[in-house]
Design goal:
The N and C termini lie far apart (91 Å). This protein has a domain of 41 residues. It is flat. By secondary structure, it is an all-alpha fold. It contains 14 helices and no strands. Keywords: Membrane, Transmembrane, Transmembrane helix. It comes from Flavobacterium resistens.
């Protein structure tokens, strides 16, 4: 299914490992250059700005091809309008296939043709079905999954996750008010099932090529699981989809469950992340905690905003301070020590900067003095015999 030479994919992984070892100081620059010279890799761009530049160039190329086709098809008028997006989608598929045969991967040019093909698939299905959302989401998800499986394109996996979620939502809308009412629970259960499926797939993965995409899908499931039953999301969607106006003194159905879910799930994420040392889940837990606080603050303003921010900052400072004190001397597991591989000593530099700014410490500046001191003949710093 993968279009690229797997040997070159493996070489790319080895070159990345060599770069990591070089940054960690384990190998020399000459050894790194020797490895890069001996291992042929795919044509890719690690510099995001350069990749964006090639993406814009690819978009210009794609639009030029589609524009040239449109010039010849304008004579067909309405018939061409019905099929033009299908033709443009084929152009995208053919273009990325040709680029893949030339070993372009995550380069920018291939991104333009992949995303252009997915966009045209969605527009083509929308024109044919007159805007049937569930069908559009279904075919876009299939096309995105194909792009990921064949070209190992991470953004396509993200499009697949979003399109699949959209398909689930639009299908639930087909059941009317009942489907809209149970939608949060269906989304929560679906996200939980897909999370454990992707987790097991990652654990049993024999080829590492799909690892990043599965990890992205796994992280997406964590976010979807939390948002599916977040109180703010459920209440606002309930008002938007069902027209349920929450009057003073009343609340949405199952409000207690959604309150508890909003508070408990981020804590579970945090505990699990610390237990398994999962950095991605840790960041998701921080974002979920922040959004939970925002959710409560959105409906219940207990304190003035300035007081709440001050107390929140004090609590965060206390947590950070005592965490640093506890982890500062640990050598393994969760630790405050700098990572030799990633040179992540920014925290230590920040600590020194905070101390210096707090106590008014300034770097030593050498000032040239017009007076000359020291002219002794024994052990340095005495004075001479003249005045």
């Amino acid at each position: 299914m993968i279009v690229y030479d797997k040997k070159m994919l493996d070489n790319g992984a080895l070159v990345n490992e060599a770069d990591t070892l070089y940054n960690g100081g384990f190998i020399s620059k000459d050894q790194k250059k020797f490895i890069e010279k001996e291992l042929p890799v795919l044509k890719s761009q690690s510099n995001i700005l350069v990749r964006i530049g090639f993406f814009l160039l690819g978009c210009l190329l794609y639009l030029s091809i589609c524009g040239a086709i449109s010039i010849f098809g304008l004579s067909g008028e309405s018939v061409f309008f019905q099929i033009c997006c299908y033709i443009f989608a084929v152009v995208g598929f053919v273009g990325v296939e040709l680029l893949a045969t030339q070993n372009y991967h995550n380069h920018g040019l291939d991104d333009a043709f992949i995303l252009g093909a997915l966009l045209n698939v969605g527009i083509a299905i929308a024109v044919t079905t007159e805007g049937y959302e569930a069908v559009i989401a279904f075919f876009v998800s299939i096309a995105a999954l194909f792009m990921f499986l064949r070209y190992l394109h991470l953004v396509s996996m993200l499009v697949f996750c979003i399109a699949t979620t959209g398909f689930l939502f639009f299908e639930m809308f087909e059941f009317g008010d009942i489907g809209k009412t149970i939608l949060p629970f269906v989304a929560m259960i679906s996200a939980a099932i897909l999370y454990f499926v992707t987790k097991k797939t990652i654990f049993n993965l024999k080829e590492s090529y799909y690892y990043n995409g599965l990890l992205l899908a796994n992280s997406f499931c964590l976010i979807l699981f939390y948002l599916s039953c977040n109180y703010l999301v459920v209440r606002e969607l309930s008002a938007e989809l069902l027209g349920n106006e929450v009057k003073p003194g009343t609340d949405i159905p199952f409000a207690f469950f959604f309150y508890a879910f909003t508070i408990i799930v981020p804590i579970i994420y945090l505990i699990q992340a610390l237990k398994t040392k999962d950095r991605i889940m840790l960041w998701i837990s921080f974002l979920a905690i922040a959004f939970s606080i925002y959710t409560i603050r959105f409906y219940y303003s207990v304190l003035p905003i300035e007081v709440a921010l001050t107390l929140g900052g004090a609590v965060l400072f206390a947590i950070a301070f005592f965490s640093i004190k506890k982890l500062k001397e640990k050598e393994s597991g969760l630790t405050f020590k700098p990572d030799r591989i990633n040179h992540s000593d920014n925290f230590l530099n920040a600590e020194a900067l905070v101390v210096a700014s707090t106590f008014g410490m300034k770097p030593e500046v050498k000032i040239d003095s017009p007076m000359e001191f020291g002219d002794g003949g024994f052990s340095g710093g005495g004075s001479g015999g003249s005045f």
